[in-house]
Amino acid sequence: MKEKISVLIPTYNVGKFVEKAIRSVMQQSYTNLEIIVVDDFSTDDTFSILQKLANEDSRIKLFRNKQNMKIAATLNFAIEQATGKYIARIDGDDIADNTRIETLYNYLQEHPEVKLVSSNLFSINEKDAILKEEIYPESFESIKKVALFSSPVSHHWLTYKYIYEKYGNYRMSGAEDYDFILRLISNNVPLANVQKGLYYLRIREGNTISTMGLSQIKLSNYVKKLHKERMKNNTLTDSYSLEALKKYLTTSPFITKMHNISASLFRKFVLRKKREGIIYLPLAILFSPYYQLQHIKNKLLYKIYKK
């Protein structure tokens, strides 16, 4: 029998999508799975749907936080429960191709030097319609080249559990995946992306993927700052602390309000067809020029250096 893989699924108020997400894991071609679902104190029908699914499949281990803990703490709790040699991820509103885990597992077996692997993905809307394909750099050298522009590895990766034990768990909700990937790059841990779309990432109102909020932009800047610090000092540690993070994220109410308007306009640009949505882009920039232009610049540089 193949080795056990623990699949971590954090959920929060995703009742409309969660059954499809969980079933996409239940139906994986790789069957030796431990499906660890941690609900972050949802206030909709998410948990009742999860209970029904857990009764259907004995591989599902269902937990619920006693209060809303945010995604980083929720994932860290899930890692503590994991007994598999490998750790995989899926979010509670996304969908996995039924060969995803097997494909990533086989890649790690064929490339023992690689310690974490992800893949390309398709972004989808609330009705499951494909919006576009996201292509990620394949090799570790290419990944390192674009790492400071945008996350070069999508969070639906497969890695070894010992990687978390050796390099630390998630630290900050909102940029937990990017921070983790940059810490691995700082430590020269080889990463890769399979050049095949194996994941369907949902873009919807209410999730952080649909737009780059001000706090997420500042979080992204903060984890880049920590990465540069580690690289400059040639050290595995950095100056991260909750106090320093809170100080870095402090923003005036006016700037926050302007960026929220900008983010709403940018979301319309993302979710609509190019011809219909293009009018929203200059308006989004107008309301938050510094942060939106920074975001757009990083996206453009990422595309240029990824080639």
Automatic annotation (TrEMBL):
Sequence ranges assigned to domain Glycosyltransferase 2-like in this UniProt record: 6-118
InterPro entries: Glyco_trans_2-like (IPR001173), Nucleotide-diphossugar_trans (IPR029044)
GO molecular function: hexosyltransferase activity
Keywords assigned by UniProt, alphabetized: Transferase
SUPFAM superfamilies: Nucleotide-diphospho-sugar transferases
Matching Pfam families: Glycos_transf_2 (PF00535)
PANTHER family: GLYCOSYLTRANSFERASE, UDP-GLCNAC:BETAGAL BETA-1,3-N-ACETYLGLUCOSAMINYLTRANSFERASE-LIKE PROTEIN 1
Protein name, UniProt field: Glycosyl transferase family 2
Source species: Capnocytophaga sputigena
Lineage start: Bacteria, Pseudomonadati, Bacteroidota, Flavobacteriia, Flavobacteriales
